[in-house]
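dumping this here before i forget
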Amino acid sequence: MRKLYATLLTLLAAVLAATTLSAAPARAADNGSWSVFPTSSQLAQRPYFFLSADPGSTLTDKVTVTNKTGEPLTFRLYAADAYNTARDGGFAVRTKDEKQRGVGAWARPARDKVTVKPHGSVTVPFTLRVPENAEPGDHPGALVALDERVDPADGAVAVGVRRAVGARIYLRVGGPTMPALAVEKVRVTHRQPLVPGFGDSTAVIAYTLRNTGNVTLNPRVELTAKGLFGRTLLSRALTKIPSELLPGQEVRLSEPWRGAPQLDWGDITLTASAPHTRESASASFFALPWLVAVLFLAALVITGVALRLRKSPRTSTGSPRTRTVKGIVAAVLRPRRVRARRS
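structure:
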């Protein structure tokens, strides 16, 4: 069977790990084989690029790529826009072939390909030109060092892996900042036991968290569940929240609810907050075990049938058609009796 070779581009942008090289900062983006980080002086080390600029201005800086292996490595250097992954909201960057609209389109390294000797480093200057019409606020991205080697694996279907490491760029363009959050598409899914009290009742609360402003946010989300008559069933701060929700990005998240009520009717409320912004969204839930639901429907059907039988006419009085025929016969016979008396 002919092997199918595919290329899987994995961008390991800004993996935070300690490094044994004294030349690299403590929080350099590192995958164990090479690292990428802002070039720093001996007095000041930077984990990331924190840059500020006005529309129409130009910035210059330097990035360092370090080879931690015993063989020379060749990298493709490029700038890329950042985004939140849909699965968990992690920080990720676009591939070289994707459309770049922010930092990925504005930043250009002086060299787009470098070869780094074993256990050596290369420093490359780059220029970032902010367009005149750039929108104010945060524009996150990264400078990426991509190893273009593709090593096929064994097996009928071999997957070649390209690895990349990126040094994050946090660029803020001057102008008004507008932090804003939105909680959308709240949905509650219940899993009930067939018989009440025989089994666990669980629920999953799914929702979309969206950054509708122009600055990066570190959101907090609080979950509250209230049952019938306003009883508080659940109240807690959620932990599986992205630490950085980038401007214009959204993530679909879910929260398990163990020990959810087996028989109740109420509301779920999610409140997202960050400095200078706070928004809430709610959804109703109706917890009802299957056996109770079936019995309830059966009772409704039986009650409906009984009411219809009570409202139907009794057999002793006859049907409406029979009563109408009797009335016609009586009306016909009555005039004949009157005429007989006058004669």
